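Quick one, probably user error.
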């Protein structure tokens, strides 16, 4: 009706329902000047008109006011910028896995070899598992007296 939306019709109608009785009541009942009663009517109807017409970024006035109240009162004033670095998570996971492996290795009894930092094949040759050529040895290599003995798993 009149090219207005339903929202605008409801807000204008409710503003008129509140403002017009106030105007006629002040003018006749109290005997106020008509300009004072008109000013009171305008001030009373103004919030209804603002609710009907005002929009910012496609949002009506009550949503804009709700956002302003959230920013001022509900949310913290300073919000630190935080990111989740995937590579830092992988590094932390690797560190934790090494700590767990170290604890498990230390809890085993009668074990002289904990965890070698780099597997270079020497332990496998000493235990008779394999050689550089990929062939299996038939006899275990005898450890040298000066070398540390290696226990096979």
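Nope, works fine. Designed sequence:
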């Amino acid at each position: 009706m009149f090219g207005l939306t339903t929202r605008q019709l409801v807000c204008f109608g409710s503003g008129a329902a509140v403002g017009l009785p106030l105007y006629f009541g002040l003018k006749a009942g109290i005997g106020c000047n008509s300009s004072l009663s008109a000013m009171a009517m305008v001030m009373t109807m103004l919030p209804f008109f603002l609710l009907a017409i005002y929009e910012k970024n496609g949002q009506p006035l009550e949503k804009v006011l709700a956002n302003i109240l959230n920013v001022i009162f509900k949310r913290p004033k300073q919000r630190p910028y935080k990111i989740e670095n995937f590579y830092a998570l992988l590094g932390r996971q690797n560190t934790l896995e090494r700590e767990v492996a170290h604890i498990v290795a230390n809890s085993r009894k009668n074990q002289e070899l904990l965890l070698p930092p780099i597997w270079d094949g020497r332990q496998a040759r000493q235990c008779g598992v394999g050689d550089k050529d990929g062939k299996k040895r038939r006899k275990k290599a005898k450890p040298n007296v000066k070398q540390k003995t290696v226990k096979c798993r």
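The longest strand covers residues 55-56.
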